[in-house]
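Sequence, structure tokens reproduced for absentees:
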Amino acid sequence: MRKPFLIVLVPLIALLMTAGFRTEGTASSWKRTFEIRTTITVRDIPDEAGLLNLWIPYPIESSQQVIEEFRIDSPFPHTLNREGKFGNRMIFLSIPDPPSSFGISMSYTVRRHESSGESSSPETQERIGWSLESSRLIPLSPFAAEIARTHADPKSSLSEQARSLYDHTLSHMNYDKTGEGWGNGDFQYACDYGKGNCTDYHSYFIGLCRNIGIPAYFEIGYSVPSNLTEGTIPGYHCWAYFWDGKAWIPVDISEADKNREKTDYYFGHHDPNRVALSRGRDITLSPPQNEGSLNYFVFPYSEVDGRKHGAIDWTITFKEATDL
């Protein structure tokens, strides 16, 4: 029997990506601390499998989110890797001659603060660069630029233009997960059908911003219910940031649509009822996966002998912790 490997990772906030970040406003006045536990089962692995690779998102660390006491219990060795473009981190396992199934568990504590912006940092220019790029489902196009110009006055400030696009997105989109096509973060789908989930709302907003020169990017993780102190996380959630010339400003348009009394709040704030796992789109993992970039990275991803292996089950539970 293989002896499980166990690692404990201390916070890396001083070492990775977050130098120079600060939280604007009164971010420390609203915060939550969670104990998170994730269980993952990889199953239905073919008997003839020669090599299984598995990548698991490792949560972002920033001025809004501190990760402590990270532990992983696995029957196989693993490393903590970081991809080069967006700075996303991940647990990576490479398993020769894998068994037909195996399980992994992870736990960590999250100290999450309300966010009202991230100011400039040493990596701001790099982030601005990729926050203006076209991606597979958020293209740069004359069509998208024309929509954006229709709703945003180019003589106004970047923040005022972004607010106009935020308000347009709210009026254009409906939170509706019926039918097919939603949930991919597809700008054209959102444009044509005006409905979807958080990925579609924020991809539409990001696409409009980028097409008139406002840097904007996608971040994804999951929501933690605000009315519960423990339970199971039901699914993912995503949101966006845009650059106003001085700071990265948070928006959460799908939450604003579900809570219209908070429309003004969610332009410029993220509440602490969330955990961020990754940012960006069209993600190449570390080491690179074989089957092409990921649309976004919020679920564990696996390949067997270079082919995607989708038979993965996972559960995330949380418990409110006392904030010392």
User: Anything to note?
Assistant: The longest strand covers residues 31-42.
